[in-house]
Amino acid sequence: LVVVIAILAVLATIAVPRLLKRSRESQIAATVRDLQMAYDTLQRYHIEHGSWPADTQHKNFPPELKGYFNEKFFTEKNSAGGWYDWNNGFGAQAAIALWMQPADLEFFRAIDRRLDDGNLSTGNVRKQDSKTLNYIIVP
Question: Which residues lie below 8 Å from residue 52, measured CB to CB, with a gap of 6+?
Fold first, then answer.
C-alpha cells in the first residue's frame, strides 16, 4: 500500500504541472479566439453603421451591439478570469480590451505573441494601463 501511494505521489507531481500548463494554453487560445471574433464582429458593425458604438466601462454591454454579441461576452468573466470591454477613444479610436485585476503580464504577452508582434508597447496589441490589454482596430 505504501508503494502504491508513493507511485501515485510521483505520478501526481509529474501530471499536475502538465495539466496546469494545458489549462493555461487553453485560456490563451480561447482569449485569442474571442478577441479575433470580436475584432471581426466590430469591423462588420462599423461597415454596416458607418460609426463605432459608444464607449462603455468594463462589465457593461454596449447596447448598440445587441444582435452582434451575446450580452454575456461583456458582462461575465471570460475563461481567463477577466472581462472584455469595448473601447472607443480610450487608448485608440476603436479597440476591444481585456481587463484583468490583477493583471497578468505574462498572459498579456502570450496574447500579443499570438495576435501581433510580442511587444506590449507597439503594434495592434498593447498594454493600455496596469489592468488593460487593448486589441486595436483603429489607432
Answer: 42, 45, 46, 88, 93, 94, 138
Amino acid at 118: G
Mean per-residue pLDDT pooled into runs of 10, the chain (139 residues):
74 62 87 98 98 94 97 95 94 94 94 98 96 96
Burial class (CB in 10 A: 0-12, 13-18, 19+), 3: exposed
Prediction pTM value? 0.83
